[in-house]
Write a structure and sequence with these properties.
The protein is α+β, with helices and mostly antiparallel strands. 36% of the residues lie in helices and 27% in strands. The protein contains four helices and six strands; from the N terminus they run H-H-E-E-E-H-E-E-E-H. Strands 3-2-1-6-5-4 form a six-stranded antiparallel β-sheet, sandwiched between helices. The radius of gyration is 15 Å and the shape is globular.
Length: 161
């Protein structure tokens, strides 16, 4: 069992530094992608404030298919180019949306979601999937989240591929 202390952080960077250390401890030496994604989604969901969904979609059959996650039930399949996840996947770029209701084509799996960040997982330039995090707070995500979440995705790539 992994014990995650509940700590309030003054700065977002402090949270991410701890989160990255926990990710390294959880997945270090473990090559199973699904097991690692399950633990990372749980870690993010239980560590970050104002999060209502954290998880992964995996690239299969030319679409994104629901993978390990924490939160309410979600859309099972997402077409590339559709919604925030599909857009980040097709562009192969991290996207954070301050207000999902203003994002053309947003796919509303949970009506409480107000903002979202999606980080593509790429191996040698090929799409493997995306990390998707939803928040109940407008403008939850920024460049700091982008930087550290891309680092977490990099750890997945290093450990699992």
């Amino acid at each position: 069992m992994f014990d995650l202390p509940k700590v309030k952080y003054q700065k977002k960077e402090e949270l991410y530094i701890q989160l990255i250390q926990h990710v390294k401890g959880l997945i270090g030496g473990e090559k199973d992608l699904i097991a690692n994604l399950a633990n990372i989604s749980s870690l993010i969901f239980n560590s970050m404030e104002d999060i209502n969904w954290a998880g992964f979609y995996l690239y299969k059959e030319n679409q994104l298919v629901l993978g390990p996650f924490n939160g309410k039930p979600a859309c099972i399949r997402i077409t590339l180019g559709k919604g925030v996840c599909g857009t980040a996947a097709i562009k192969k770029q991290t996207i954070f949306v301050e207000n999902v209701h203003e994002f053309e084509g947003h796919i509303a799996c949970d009506g409480e979601t107000l903002s979202e960040i999606v980080v593509p997982m790429l191996v040698d330039g090929q799409l493997i999937g995306v990390l998707d995090i939803d928040s109940i707070k407008i403008s939850k995500f920024d460049e700091i989240d982008k930087m550290y979440l891309e680092e977490i995705v990099g750890l997945i790539r290093t450990e699992c591929f």
